[in-house]
Amino acid sequence: MSSTVVIILIVVVVLLVLGAILLIRQRRGTHLREQFGSEYDRTVDTTGNRREAEKELEERRERRETLEIRPLAPDQRERYRQHWTRLQQAFSDDPAGSIRNADGLVVAIMRDRGYPVEDFDQRAADVSVDHPEAVEHYREARRIAEAHGVGRASTDDLRLAMTSYRALVDALLDDGGTDRPGDRDGDRGRAHRDPQPGRDTQQDGERQ
User: Fold this and answer.
1) What does the pLDDT look like over 94-147, one tens digit per residue?
2) Which of 41, 46, 79, 184 has the greatest count of CB atoms below 10 A from its CB?
3) Could you read off the pLDDT of 62-104 as tens digits, one per residue?
């Protein structure tokens, strides 16, 4: 076999290997886009590099597989739903307190579900694997809560934060639930269609 033929064969093999690697990366990117949706685009924008973004999302997915996330018992879900209703009712009299309690409620639900809750960024990353559509609402609510802490959020902003918190509360409560079959998507939609929190309701005086 001549050296020319050997070189040609080597080039062909290299091209085939490169093509296979490219195809694997494309398929991985497609799967990640399908799973994470807008969270995929956000991560690409944040990292500034598609490959780095996909690596980060893969690491999130791998970490999630090590966590023992469990559904809530029906009585737990019902208690949390009632708690959320009380928070909405209290909003008109105490918007800032309701937002603080909403954030605490999300942390409590995540803890009961089995998510680590020590760090906000890690909480958001972990929950993004299961609820990529709701996690941006979580970040938005947190941004508003922090802005309010330095006097840069209006009551309307807090109302938006309350609605955003509800998107994640609904997702966390309905995920894996058995008490309200088929109602998960409807609840998520209502999180964005409900009247503004606190209107036409009476405060029941209960706080978290």
Assistant:
1) 999 999 999 999 999 999 999 999 999 999 999 999 999 999 999 999 999 999
2) 184
3) 999 999 999 999 999 999 999 999 999 999 999 999 999 999 9
176: containing domain: 74-190
Within-domain flag for 202: no
Q: Which of 123, 122, 121 is nearest to 113 (CA)?
A: 123
Asked if the structure places residue 79 within a domain, the reply is yes
Domain boundary among 17, 33, 66: 66
Residue 49 DSSP SS3: coil
Local confidence band at 13 (pLDDT 50, 70, 90 cut-offs): confident
User: Looking at the structure, do residues 22 and 104 belong to the same domain, yes or no?
Assistant: no
Report how far residue 98's alpha carbon sits from residue 203's, in angstroms, rounded to the nearest whole number: 11
In a domain, residue 195? The reply is no
Structure tokens at 101: 């309690």
CA distances from 8 to 1, 67, 124, 204 (A): 11, 49, 50, 80
């559509």: which residue's tokens?
A: 133
Residue 186, token pair as written in the block: 């409807």
* d(C-alpha 186, C-alpha 56), whole Å: 31
Q: Are 60 and 88 in the same domain? A: no
Say which amino acid occupies 142.
R
Which amino acid, residue 130?
D
pTM of the complete model: 0.72
Distance of CA 110 to the CA centre of its chain: 11
Tokens at 31, concatenated: 């799967």
As a whole number of angstroms, the distance between CA 44 and CA 135 comes to: 16
